[in-house]
Amino acid sequence: MTEHEHVRVAVIGSGFGGLGAAVRLRREGITDFVVLERAGTVGGTWRDNSYPGCACDVPSHLYSFSFAPNPDWPRTFSGQERIQEYLEGVADTFRLRPHIRFDSEVKQARWDSEKLWWELDTASGTLTADVVVSATGPLSDPKIPDIKGFDTFPGKVFHSARWDHDYDLRGKRVAMIGTGASAIQIVPAVQKEVGRLTLFQRTPPWVMPRADRNITRAERWLHRQLPFTTQARRGLLWGIRELQVQAFTKRPNELGMVEQLAKRNMHRAIKDPALRAKLTPDYRIGCKRILLSNAYYPALARPNVDVVASGLSEIRGNTLVAADGTEAEVDAIVFGTGFHVTDMPIAERVVGADGVSLAESWKGGMAALRGATAAGFPNFMTIIGPNTGLGNSSMILMIEAQLNYLADYMRQLTVLGGRVALTPRETAVAGWNNRVQDRMKRTVWNTGGCDSWYLDENGRNTTVWPGTTTEFRQATRRVDVGEYEVVRPPVEAASKKSRTKKKAEVSAA
């Protein structure tokens, strides 16, 4: 970066959110922007999560941008490599690479109230920007629990999102910690090659069959020749999921039938009653993320797999001890323990108008106006912000809705003219958040009887959107300037106030 470089917009992250923001800015005629990426390639979570078996649990034609359809998805549920290729293709197709600064992790972003811009300190230099768009995503920073005796373990340790491909698991005694979306893909992928696999399960997940198959050549040919068929396929997938939302958000008891399907899926593979009892959840399906797999249960039934129905409590050298006292000798530990979702590290690095970090501002719980802007942080927008997550559909739909909001935000700044910033009113943020939390009360995520990563340390659900994607898109189709305070440079603001006062005096005279 050049010294004292200034840009109109700085986007943090080059996953789906960051690349989508870059495309939308270009479509709005804004080319004075940079994408700050901490790694050496684009992809975000789909670059970082390269563990064996990694794949998406949303159908490919729905888990892709509407403005960048891919007629050649090879499977209905694509693997990590294909999604990464897709994102690389988006960066090339929309000529985004000249805007991307790799190896440029943002160390701090601080708002300058005098100059009305953001000062960003990155691993590759400093720059300033009128607007900052944070697209780091909630699934970007791995979370490893604080385990007693962790430093005494002499073997190999890594998180699922930081897979060590140089470490050979063949014949090893391996412990898998956690039973989330990553774990149920890793277990069947490594079970055949490890000597012994011990799964430490704190809470069993609900697992449904995965309707995955190869997409035929004829289908792909049809999608290439008649693009509207790709749109129709995407529309059908979207519509089905929109119809499912009410069961999650308003009528959780209707999910009982789905639980029966999940139990049948388990019973087909797990014949041992004792093991089946360990794997049966005691909470309403949907309270935690519903997982999809045809291979997870069969892998757990294999003779070289042990299921410990208790979380990891302590490590004594090579011995792992569960909370119920069960012990296992292992050579390697794989943590599938999720991410810093409600306490995102980027929030600690963003300092707003009052000298307070975003993390401090969100100490009582994350809250942002329409999931995008936070009070006290002018011209700062988050893609996949508070309460924008989904429990049953594609996050790309939510991202695109927020890109609409970003586009109108930039238009409003242009209309206001000059050096100007918008900061959401505290009353607007509180009002939006109160409405969201009120709707959240009857959802399965709050009433289903589980403790999930959707909830923060205060037990509040600050992660999921309690409605349809259509509702969210309507709520973010444009910026209501009345929900914001217009901020101008101190000198300009004082001059405007003085002119207003003189006009008043003249009128009075």
UniProtKB/TrEMBL annotation:
Q: Which Gene3D superfamilies match?
A: FAD/NAD(P)-binding domain
Keyword NADP: yes or no? yes
Q: Which residues form a coiled coil?
A: none
Role of this protein: Catalyzes a Baeyer-Villiger oxidation reaction, i.e. the insertion of an oxygen atom into a carbon-carbon bond adjacent to a carbonyl, which converts ketones to esters or lactones using NADPH and/or NADH as an electron donor. Thus, can convert bicyclo[3.2.0]hept-2-en-6-one into the oxidative lactone products 2-oxabicyclo[3.3.0]oct-6-en-3-one and 3-oxabicyclo[3.3.0]oct-6-en-2-one. Is also able to catalyze the sulfoxidation of methyl phenyl sulfide (thioanisole).
Question: Matching PANTHER family, A to Z?
Answer: FAD_NAD(P)-BINDING DOMAIN-CONTAINING PROTEIN-RELATED (PTHR42877:SF4), L-ORNITHINE N(5)-MONOOXYGENASE-RELATED (PTHR42877)
Q: Which GO terms describe its molecular function?
A: flavin adenine dinucleotide binding; N,N-dimethylaniline monooxygenase activity; NADP binding
Q: Which UniProt keywords apply?
A: FAD, Flavoprotein, Monooxygenase, NADP, Oxidoreductase
This chain belongs to the protein called Baeyer-Villiger monooxygenase
Per the UniProt record, the source organism is Streptomyces tabacisoli
Instruction: Name the cofactor(s) required for activity, per the record.
Output: FAD
The UniProt family comment states:
Belongs to the FAD-binding monooxygenase family.
Q: Which Pfam families match?
A: FMO-like
